[in-house]
Amino acid sequence: MSSVKPYDMCWLDYRTLKIKDFDLFRTICIVDNDKSLEVPIKELKHFIKYSFKINPRVIKGSFDFSKYILIGKIDQMKDIIKEAKMWERKLNNEGFILKRIKENDKDILIITAKNERALVYAVFKLIENLRIGEKLDDLNHVDNPASYFRIINHWDNLDGTVERGYAGNSIFFKDNKIIINERTRDYARLLSSIGINGVVINNVNVKKKEVELITHKYLKILSRLANIFWDYGIKIYLSINFASPIYLGGLSTADPLDKRVSIWWKTKAEEIYDYIPYFGGFLVKADSEFNPGPHMYGRTHADGANMLAEALEPYGGYVIWRTFVYNCMQDWRDYKTDRARAAYDNFKPLDGNFYENVVLQIKYGPMDFQVREPVSPLFGGMEKTNQILELQITQEYTGQQIHLCYLGTLWKEILEFDTYAKGEGSKVKEILKGKIFETKYNGFAGVSNVGDSSNWTGHDLAQANLYTFGVLAWNPDRDIAKVVDDWIKLTFGDDSKVRENISYMLLNSHRIYEKYTTPFGLGWMVNPGYHYGPNPEGYEYSRWGTYHRANYEAIGIDRTSKGTGYTLQYHSPWREIYDDINKCPEDLLLFFHRVPYKFILKSGKTLIQQIYDLHFEGVEEVEVLKEKWYELKERIDDKIFERVSKRLEMQLEHAKEWRDVINTYFFRKTGIPDDKGRKIYP
């Protein structure tokens, strides 16, 4: 934890703090001689040293001081603090208590939890609270994570490349070797500081070389990597190839109902846990985009997932099974084939058939992380199955960390979406808390935006997306504006102008990006393969044309009960709202309906005019983002200012390209000019 590193420490870059009663931090008393508290004590000392410029003394088992920090597990705290028994009943296994007590000439700051991993979370939360300005006298927190799983998914390959990575190469792999260095531990610190408890280190698309990660060749060094992350309360997971028994075991089949296959996986699980006792489990992408799966053998997703779950169950491991299966058993020659229907059609009939240690990982929308989609109907549809919400922190379709596009505002909308599965109040966030259905292993998965760039995320302001993911995964009730303000203070300090301008930039950026790219839920108007830059007809949607099916008179797909029937996958009243072109939220109008260009919107404008207007507005608002940033020139570190400035310059040029290409496309399709007389055709 040296003070000078070849990379930034994001929101963990500690600065000098000036607070009253800093004498409280001169002494740290440990409840007992527990060596397992080494990491939380080390993190606490590190913070005190850099923020208060003092070296605290650490005392074990002695409390004869007037002012001190008291840290320890709550079962041992009960002999010292009489209220501890009552506190214990309020904690889950990862929750913690931060509390200041002043009585009998004693001034004690208490940090307690049920285990050392939760104490690490507690120390980081204490540090954060102090750095954002909370007063010591106000410390009185009982803080439990709302969901069981809070996992980062890396799409890293053994050769060091990162699929959909926009921040350099992998921090885990290089030249088919596993990297362990100082940055490895600092990454564990970053994730732990926002409450992450799991990390999948390799790509869900498991290529032939990556299949070997579950073999002796890699397991020994993986155990070292796992120990580093486990110190910070984080389990590692591995993406696996469903056909591994063929590739590695010499079997002729991977049929999940073949006893030889199940025995092979049980033996493999035993081997993995011998090396990594705290191994989290497997992430599986099956029967999708050429990844093998149970349908190859006429079996169901439940058959495949349960076979793996049985192998992991004795060790407390989990199978996380992705529901991204759009090309599984679909006939793309049929006009009514609708990719949006695929996940629900495949998994809804299996609800209740999965073992308890199987968790379905569901993309937030039914398609593929587009700029805007409706919330997947599987949330609210799978009443008897554990569910994880999959969000994409990396900006595959939202500017690839060249464009500023803060995703917290979008994620908050998703979490607040009411599925009506059990009547009003059945919000996605409540499902993930386990409060709507009787399932207990639910949570969040975020596709990582981290690479080996010096600032971790390519665009410095994209760090806010990673931070926000962790904060919302821990507590999805958090106010998003407050989350943004906290991140700014932790990263840039408490300058009011910096807070004001960057808050504006972040909170408005997703809507701005949406305006100049694909409003109304269009999506897919990007270049194929690398998913960047405007290409209105880049993706074909079966033999019937593009995803948006634009012609000279109308645009959009009829996903109503009279079209593909996708709206019928939702509970009422959403199925009726989405089914009605006059009631459907306009942000999703072209996702659910085929609409004539001269259709009148609620604003009184025609659809085509609003398309023109939004694309012009989007570019103008990027110019505002740039102005807001340039106002901070003397207030931001020079290297960060220059890096972000370059990205904003690129964003402005690319936004203009989007505006011109999309508006030109629709002008050519329709022959309808802009009402305001602006130049549409370049």
Automatic annotation (TrEMBL):
Assembly: Homodimer.
Keyword field contains Repeat: no
Swiss-Prot/TrEMBL catalytic activity: Hydrolysis of (1->2)-alpha-D-(4-O-methyl)glucuronosyl links in the main chain of hardwood xylans
Coiled coil (UniProt feature): none
GO CC field: extracellular region
Matches recorded under Pfam families: Glyco_hydro_67C, Glyco_hydro_67M, Glyco_hydro_67N
Keyword Hydrolase: yes
Taxonomic source organism: Dictyoglomus thermophilum
Active site: E289 (proton donor), D368 (proton acceptor), E396 (proton acceptor)
Family membership: Belongs to the glycosyl hydrolase 67 family.
Classification via SUPFAM superfamilies: (Trans)glycosidases, beta-N-acetylhexosaminidase-like domain
Span of domain Glycosyl hydrolase family 67 C-terminal: 457-678
Keywords per UniProt: Carbohydrate metabolism, Glycosidase, Hydrolase, Polysaccharide degradation, Xylan degradation
EC top class, as a word: hydrolase
Enzyme Commission (EC) number: 3.2.1.131
Domain Glycosyl hydrolase family 67 catalytic: 132-456
One GO BP annotation of this record: glucuronoxylan catabolic process
Gene3D superfamilies in alphabetical order: Alpha-glucuronidase, C-terminal domain, Chitobiase/beta-hexosaminidase domain 2-like, Glycosidases
A GO molecular-function descriptor: alpha-glucuronidase activity
Protein name according to UniProt: Xylan alpha-1,2-glucuronidase
Domain of life: Bacteria
Record domain Alpha glucuronidase N-terminal: where: 10-126
